[in-house]
Amino acid sequence: MKKKIIIHLEDLTTAQEVLLQELLQTFCVEQIEVLEDTTSTLLVGDLQIDVDRRQVWRAGNLIELTSMEFDILYLLAHHPGQVFSARQIYEAVAADSFDASWTGISSMVYKLRRKLGAGIIETVRGHGYKFVAPGTSLK
């Protein structure tokens, strides 16, 4: 008898993918469905990102962000420490927008840094940008 397993994981590492393949074989599972986290608020240090309301607070203070700034912040914060090139960010959050280009991402990251404070989004020279949880350093 084939069974369906639903696993709630945000991201799969290579080791997790191997484990899932072993589960498929061991338990004769036909399909594994991976669902994204349905939590509507992302908390990172003193930064709170409310996905449903598209609002951001830092240390209890509401930070006014444009739609594109919010999307960039959420993308980076949802994958802390992962480096995204400007083109990857553009393709993930703005590819359908007529008023932006991937070359403008650095300007939007600059504005985000001014609004959120230094140290939240780091530049990885020659590669792109990464999110660093407030009060930590991911090197």
Explain this structure.
This protein is α+β, with helices and mostly antiparallel strands and 139 residues long. The chain folds into two domains: 4-35, no CATH class; 64-131, Arc Repressor Mutant, subunit A (Orthogonal Bundle). The chain is built from four helices and eight strands.
Provide mean pLDDT, rounded: 77
Rg, please?
A: 18 Å
Ranges where pLDDT stays below 50 over 5 or more residues in a row are none
Please identify the structural class as seen in this structure. Answer: alpha+beta
Question: In which order are the strands of the major sheet placed?
Answer: 3-4-5-6
The amount of helix comes to 25-40%
CATH architecture of the largest domain: Orthogonal Bundle
The named CATH superfamily of the largest domain? Winged helix-like DNA-binding domain superfamily/Winged helix DNA-binding domain
Q: Beta-strand level of the residues, as a percent range?
A: 15-25%
Distance, first to last CA: 47 Å
Question: Would you summarize the structure shown here?
Answer:
The chain is α+β, with helices and mostly antiparallel strands and 139 residues long.
Please render the helix and strand layout as text.
Blueprint: E1 4-8, H1 14-26, E2 31-35, E3 41-44, E4 47-50, E5 55-58, E6 61-63, H2 67-78, H3 86-93, H4 105-116, E7 121-124, E8 128-131
Parallel strand pairs: 1-2
Antiparallel strand pairs: 3-4, 4-5, 5-6, 7-8
Which terms summarize this structure?
single chain, 139 residues, alpha+beta, Arc Repressor Mutant, subunit A, 2 domains, four-stranded antiparallel sheet, two-stranded parallel sheet, 4 helices, 8 strands, 32% helix
